[in-house]
Each structure stands twice: as structure tokens, then as C-alpha cells.
Amino acid sequence: MKNEDDGEMAEEQKKKPCRFWIWALSSVFFRLILISFPGNLNLSSRPEVSTPLTSIRRLAEGYWLKQASMSPYAGSMYHGSPLLLSLLGPLTVQRIKGQPSHLLCSLVFVVADVLTAMLLRGIGQKLQMAYGLNARLLGFLKSSRDKGILPCGDIAALVYLWNPFTIVSCVGLSTSPIENLAVVVALYGAVKRRVPLAAFGLVMATHLSLYPATLTIPIIFLLGYGLDAPPIKLFLQTKSVENQDRSTSDVSKTEAKLKQTTRVPFLWKTVLHFVFWVLLWSLCVLVLCGLSLIKHGGLEEMFKSTYGFILSIEDLSPNIGVFWYFFAEVFDFFRNFFLIVFHVNILFMLLPLAIRLKHRPCFLAFIYLTISSILKSYPSVGDSALYLSLWALFVNELVDMKFSFFLFCGYLGISLLSPVMHNLWIWRGTGNANFYFGNAIGYACFQIVFVVESVSAMLNHDRALKRCNSKNSREVKN
Amino acid sequence: MATEKRDDKENEAVKTDDGSPKIKPRPIVQLGIFLIAHSHVFSVVFSAAGIMALLLLPLLAKNTYISENALMPGSARSMLSHRDVSDGSKLVKDIKNLRLNHEGQGVEVQRLIGKYMSEMGAEVYYQKFHPEGNQFHPLHFFSGPDSYTLLGNVSCASYGVNVAGIIRAPRGDGKESIVLVTPYDSTNGGDYEALSLGIASSLFSLLARVTWLSKDIIWLVADSRHGDYRPVAAWLSEYHTPSFKASDLSKCDELNTSHSFRRAGTMAAALVLKVDGRSERFEDTLSIFAEASNGQMPNLDLINVANYLAVHRQGFYVKVEKVVSLLSSTWLKIVGELFEAVGKMAHTLNPDWNFGIPAADYLEGSATLASSLYSQALGIPTGPHGAFRDYQVDAITLKVSPRFSPDNTARQHEFFQRGAQLLEGTIRSVNNLLEKFHQSFFLYLLTSPGKFISVGVYMIAFALLVAPLPMVAASLYIDGCNALTKATHNPAENLKSWKWLDAAKQVLALHLLGFIVTLLPYFICQVPGEHSPTNRSIMWATTISSVLLITCVTIPGCSPFSSRLHGTNWAVLKSVTISAAFIGLCLMSIINFATAEIGALLLVPMCLMVRPIKPDLRSRSVKSLLRSLCSMVLVTIGFPVMFFAICKGLIGEGLVGLSLGGEFWTWLESLWAWKSATYLYIGMVHLPCWLLCLCILFHPS
């Protein structure tokens, strides 16, 4: 019986990766097909896809300026990293005859997407193992096989690859696939405890889009405390119960492991190691940027037109965020005040969330990314693509999330409504900016509901574990 | 829409609250629970109210008013002199002579008009264009107008020549202009059509010498040999997006047109003038056409100005199009009389309540409203003014029908004077504008030239009609989820709040199918060789059915008729279907209200009524049999081809079998040729929802 079961399991295990690869490959093919019809889709000019920071057309412009030995930031066209300019810039001018322009760039983005998905899969496998281990330690999962556990790595990777938002931002030639890749590299490095890699990812992600700087906190938690786990109190309870009936039960190997985890040592050494690497990589990046901009105003110019541009919200062209409308309306003498208020919004939320969710650093990273993609100055659907796939890493914990269908319908409706409203405003002229902004508000509301529900589902999950645990312990006592 | 979503949210709050500790819900949540619990009653009430509100719309129409103060219509005295009018008469006479002398000489008439224009002091140029039909670009719907590109090599056999003259405004800076269009078919245009040239030339002669112009005037004589719309669209696309490739057409004729195209800044408004047919009434008749592509309308102020001047200054009888067959319909008359009686009764109760209108007015209003809805829903422009709307220029077509025969030169003079004065007044009003039209409504329906229904009123009817959808979806979702929880005992497989995923997969698959179906005609038209519409429709039908079959066979989970019992529960499937229909209809109501309204009238009852037919037939009670019959009938009517046939039948053209297919195909082809969003709606919302309803109807439960 057991052998049969095992055989089935093995077969299933063999089948599953196969199916995963089929789906992953088909998503790549789908992208390649879409890339070959760029004229029909015209995605790269859509405000939902390309923002002033991520648009490839601006990047090409910046590269052209640089080739003409001018500062790439001249004329407020390009606002990205000078490193990206050196990497992607040559590809924007390369044309293969008979092929659509920017083909090489598209291929780079496809590769970036695939890499991101693979790293997500790696993270997910690690998280899945941790989930199984914890569940066994707490005594919910009796058998050694993780039968009820969903393969969250595969799910997250497929969610990333097949998410229409990801596909659109990949085909629409925005640089967000590369930003997303940097973020996922940071998380992957932290999860796998490869400190230099984590530091590199974090530094690159911050360099590219500033907001991932908030990820420093979850990464430090990840390196210091280890992977996501239920609150430590539960383990203590379990341990006490097990201590009581140690006489009856065998001293298992898990006991030894448990002892290690109960103390929760904060690994200062690793964290210091991480800080050292962050400093080293930042130095590298700054030196490289300085070298590439040595004739055009140096680093000061770069900070002013990348981070300064992000923070002072100079470009008020419409996007799916809520800032452009507000800062188009606000009086000039209040502008600085509101800039501070709006940016502090993100910072305010960092600390409370960090305290409440410190036992789940990966989840914390997901929440930070979601919040920053709501309150970003130039958000695009690429950001949503990233946090939605990170969310899929926690399918096991978030199985009973509320409003799932409502949120799904909302995201669907809003993402279809957005081009319609834009069309009404820009092309038909029968609508106005309020139409598109109303859509942006709706989108922000759905995102907020999504975050709130995710967090509350996670906390409920912890509570449910606690309730179960206390019930178990009472049973044992009796 | 927001309120509905909110309802939905409330509903879900109720259903997912099972596990958490019981707290007394807030009043709004309680309201949500109440609505869901009685969703059957409320859906009937709301749908009935929606249809009722639609019938009430003619009653709720308001009188139009001029919203932009700068327009000041009719405040200045007309400066049209007899000399101007005789200029116009002379042009008409010359054209007639020319046509009598040499027939079929295409360019001669244009040259004559050009000569007249330049004599009046205008800059004249000619534009050659190729009368090519619209290309089908299914994905271009959300972007702006395409630049007009010539495909392949162009033959000189058929092309048109537009003549345009520009009068530079003495007080303007050349950055704004007003366009006057007179379509004229130089080879086989009737005598009536020449009259429009007479009016326009009288006006042009006046405008060439007035001092008050602050916007340039462009007079475009569009060569309407190949339809009205195409020449205007070609001229507009050259005006806005010039093509820098040397056109092959320039070699075709001795008329040199290259490098002569001139522009005059942004267009503030455009007026299309047509004269045709003899008026059936005692007065001269002026018909106003305003519907552009996808139900877009010009700013209401433009219609108001033209209407005001025509009625109060020039004494035209102004009308907008109406569905004539509705005027004699008995049931509408009864409804009108009912409303009249209610209005009278209300008036006796309280003299301040004056909402009743006479039954005859009601009949007229609803006939006009029906026509307005129909032409907006079709999404095909009703005249050359539609081309302007694509460039955000407000434009209307004024079609004048004189009450005399074209040979009567004595009356012609007076007719020219009145027509030119009407146009002069309108142009003078538009000339006063400081900004583009923005004050008045863009979203409205007309019930008579002087009455309109604004978006805020007609949206109520639609909102009431679709309001049951989220309620019923939520209540079904709760039922379905409870049933599924009972069915599965394995806690590991029990994804608590994700039970809708299977149903969503199926819905998504069918919508994908709808997308493919929508794109198919594009590929079918690429098939080489000439095919009749009937053949094409057969090709289309076979491809669709094969695709459907392949989907069913290859993806067992997505198969609509799969017999797997543990698959999807029909209640959840119906709930997801209804949500999809709701999203689709709400989206469509923003793109094109009229399509959404008509679509909702078909989709909402169908989606609400449909249930698996098997258990109903098994139970054999009268009620359930009646219910299954009802849903069968609704699903039959809901099939687009069927609905098309019924509509044709109502008009009086009975169609059966293959000719119906061909007819339907031609209709669809015309829809996509005009880039109508209705086409996308039928393919991507209506058809998938209909298929899903079919799946539910034959669900093996």
C-alpha cells in the first residue's frame, strides 16, 4: 500500500515539473509571438506600461544624447540609471533588417522575466520546505510527505510568467522586468543566505528605482532570524508540552532542531557581513556611474535627475498612480509640504509592519513592495506583476483569504477600464482627466483592499495555528 | 457601478465571515445581507424598474439650452447681400451648363469651383485621394485614428478630387478654423446636390469680404463619387497626419496637386451641408444628423445653435431622424396614453407636478429616441461629420430639403439666401468661441431637435437594469460555495475561498474563444479569392465550431459539456458568468451606452433566468417546466444571429437559412469596417456569455 502510494507520489512529482516546464515554455513562446507584432499592439506608448522612468523610448533618447557627447539627462527625457543606459543603450540602436525595432531589447526583457520566474521558484521551494518543517514541528503534519502543501514556488513562477501585467510590461518594452529581476535577486540571495548576492540585488534594485530600499528591513530579518515561520511562542508551547510527556514519547531528532529555533538567535555576524557587502556594492555602483558621467556633471547630476525626479514628482503626465493628478492641482506653495506628506506615508508604515510581521520576513517584503507600488510616484503594471507573484508564494498560508473573487473581478475590471477611460479622455475628448483619475483611485482602492486582506489572512492563519496548538496541548495534557 | 461593487463586497463579507468570531455587522453590511437574501425579488424589481425607466426616458427629456455664453446665436444682423446670392446662383447655373455640355468630364466641375473660389479671394488647392475602404485593425480600437496609408500600387482608374478653399481671417492668427463641407458628386450628382454648392458659394462670397472673421474658413467640396464619408476622411487624414511618401496619384492627371495642400490651424467646428429631395411638408425641412462612430456625439451646443437659428430666424422645419414604424405601434401608444393619464392625475393632485406630456409627443419622442439609440448602438456614423469626430472636431450634417423643384429659379434665390443666412449665423456663433466646445454635453440622446436626455438620466435606466447582476452573483456564490464545501470532505483539497477558480477557468476559456472568434473575420478576409458573404459566413461558422470542438476535446476541465460531476458546480459557474457579464456590460456602457443598453436588455434576463434544464425536466412540475421553457426561449433569442433575424423579421424582411447567414455576415462586416465597438462587444462579451448560458442550461447536475 505504502509502496503504491510512494510510486504514485514519485510519478506525480515527475509529472508536475514537466507540466511546469511546459507552461513556462509556452509563456515564453507567447511573448515571442507578441513581440513579433509590435505595430498592432503599440503597448510601449501606454501610460499603464511605461512611465517616465521605465520607458524604452526615453532610454533610447538618453543613449542618443550620450552618443552625441551630451549629458543623457539633458532635456529631462531620461531619468534612469546610467548603467542601464550602457547595457541597454547599444541594443536600442541595433536593428536587424526586416525585424521590428527594439527586438534585441525585447529579448533581453524576456530573458529577465524567465530569470525572475526561476528565482521565484527557488524562493518558493525554500519557503515550501520551511512551511512543511514548521508544520511538522508544530504537529499539524503527521506524515513526512508534504501532501497538502501546494508547490508555491511553481505557482509563483507561473503566476509571474502568465500574469497579463508581466506580459504587457515585457512586450511593451518597459524596463520594469529588469527592476523586478533585481528585487527578486535580492530576496533570493537572502532566502538562500548568499549574502553578497542579496546585497548586490538590493543595491541594484535601489539604484534602479529607489523604492526597493525599504527591502533592507526584511532582508536583514531574513538573514538575522531565518525564513518565514509561525510566531515563536507556538514553538515554546509545543516544546513545553513535549517536555511534559517526554517520558512517554521518544526523544526525536526534531527535538534538537527545536531547541535551536526556540532561542531565536539574531545572527549579527551575517547581518554585518551583509552591511559590508551593501557598502561594497554601492561603492562599485557609484564609481561606475561616476565614471560614465564624468564629463556630464558626475554623480550629483545623476542623483538630481533620478532620485530627485522620483521624489519631487516633476513629470505630471497621467499614470495609474494617484500622485500626478494631485500635484497637477495643488498650489505651488503647498507643493513641498505635500511632497513630504505623500512620501512619508510609505515610511510611516514601515516600522509598525516590521514589528508585527517580523517572524515572516518574506511576507513583510511582499507587503512593503505592494505598499510602495501603491504610493509610488510613477507606478506601472510591472510593479503589480511583481507583488502579485510574490503573493503567490504564500498560497499555503493565504488559502482562506477573504474577497478573493471580488478582488479578482476588481483587478480585471479596472485593468480593462483603464484603456477605455484613457481613450475617452485623450482620443475622443468626451471625457476628461477625472475619468482616468477615477480609474486610478479605483485601482488604488483595490490594491489597498488586497494588502489589508492579505495581512489579515496571514494574521488569521497565525491565530488559527495558535488555537489548534492550544487545543493539541490540552488534549495531550488530558 | 461603484455601489454595485460595494454591494458585492458586502455580500462577500457575509459569506466569508463563517469562521471568524461573530460580531454584529454594520448597517450597510446588514443591508447587503438583506439584498442578497432576497436577491430573487430584488432582481425582478430592479429589472422591471430598469425597463420602466427606459420607457420613461421621453418624459424625462429636458429642453435644450445654449450653455456657452460666447456663442450668442442670432444676436448679429445678417450681412448677406443680393450680390452674394447671385454669385451662388451663377455658380449653380455654370455647373448645370457644364454638365449639359460635356458629360463625365470629372475634373472640369472641380476646376470651375476652384476658379470661383479664387475669384472670391480664397487660397484654392486640389487633393487627390483613393477611395479605398477601411482596413480592419481589431487591435487599433483604443488608439487614435491611423494615418491614411496607401497600400500597394494604385491605379488611376478611380480616384476622387477634393477642392478646398481657405479664406484667411482678417482678425485671426491662422491658428483656428471652421470647416464647411459640401459633398458633391461631379459625374452623376443630381440638380438638388448642386444647390448645396450654391448656398455654400453665396456664403463664401460673403465671408470673403466680412471683417469680423477671427477663424479661417475652409470650404471643402468633397468628391462624393465614392460615398460621402471617404473623401472627407481622406482630406482630414491628410490635414492632420500628412504622408510624406509621394503618392502615385499625382501622376494620374494633368491636375497638379503635389505640394499644394494647405492648412488653417485647429478646427473649431465643422458643418456639412447637403441638399436633397423635395420636402414633404409645407416648409423647407432641415434634418440634423449628429451621430459619429461608436455613438459619439458632437457637443450639444453646436446642435442647439443650428436648431435655434433654423427655427427662430430662418423658419425651417427642423427634424432629427426617427423610427417611423414605431409611430404607428399600438402598444407604445397605449403606454403613452397611460403616462398622459398619470401625468394629468398628478397635475390635479398638485398643480406643480407637470411631468405629463401628450401621448402624441410621447410617441414622437420615443420614435426619435429609438432612432438615436439605434444609430449610436450601431456605431456607424450617419454622415461625413463622423470623420471629424475622430479628430475631436465637433461636426454635424445639415440636410436641407427645399419645397420647390430644382428648376424653379425664382424660388432658388430666396432659398439660397435663407440657407446661407443659417450657415452665416452658425459660423458667426462659432467664430465667437474663445475655446473649443466644452460647456455643454457630449453624452446625450436626442428625443427631438429641441429636447435631450443627458447622461445622468439615461444611466439610471442602465444601472437599474444591471443592478441585479452583482446581487444574484453574490447569492449564487454563497450557495455554490456551501454546496462545494459539503461535496468535498478532504480538507486538503478544500481551498476555502478559491473554489471559484475552476469556474473562472471555464469562463476565461470561453472568453478567449470569443476573442479568437472576433479576430477570425480578419483572417477569413485574407483568404485569397472572391467569396460571397454567404460563403464567408459558412467558413466562419465551420472554423468557430471546429475551434470550439478542439477546446472541448483537448482541455477536459474547460469543456462546457463535460460530464465530470466533481468539476464545477453550476451555481458557481453561473455566478462567475454573471460577474463577467456585469464587467463587460459596465465597460461597454462607458464606450458606447446604446450598445450596452440593448445588450443588457438581452443579456440580463438570459443570465438571470438560466438554470440547468435536467433537474427541471425530471421534476415535471408545471412551475419548473415553465421556468425551463422560459430560459430556453431567452437563450434562443440571445443568440446574436437569432436576434438579428428577429429584428429583420420585425422590420418585415423574413430571412431563413443561408441567406440569413450571408445577411448577418454583411452586417458584421460593415460593423468592423467602421471600427464599431459593437462588433467587439458581440464577439467578446455577448457571444461568450451566451455560450456560458448554454453550458449552464445543459449542465449535467
UniProtKB/TrEMBL annotation, chain A:
One Pfam family of this chain: PIG-U
Keyword Transmembrane in record: yes
GO terms of biological process kind: attachment of GPI anchor to protein; GPI anchor biosynthetic process
Localization per record: Endoplasmic reticulum membrane
Transmembrane segments: 20-37, 73-91, 103-123, 165-190, 197-225, 274-294, 306-327, 333-355, 362-381, 401-421, 433-452
Protein name: GPI transamidase subunit PIG-U
Keyword Transmembrane: yes
Membrane topology label: Multi-pass membrane protein
Family classification: Belongs to the PIGU family.
Record key words, sorted: Endoplasmic reticulum, GPI-anchor biosynthesis, Membrane, Transmembrane, Transmembrane helix
TrEMBL record, chain B:
This protein's UniProt keywords: Membrane, Transmembrane, Transmembrane helix
UniProt-listed InterPro entries: Gaa1 (IPR007246)
A GO biological process held by the record: attachment of GPI anchor to protein
Region annotated Disordered, chain positions: 1-21
Keyword Transmembrane: yes
Any single Gene Ontology cellular-component annotation: GPI-anchor transamidase complex
Keyword Membrane: yes
Pfam name, any one: Gaa1
Transmembrane segments: 28-57, 441-467, 507-525, 537-556, 576-604, 625-651, 678-698
Protein name: Glycosylphosphatidylinositol anchor attachment 1 protein
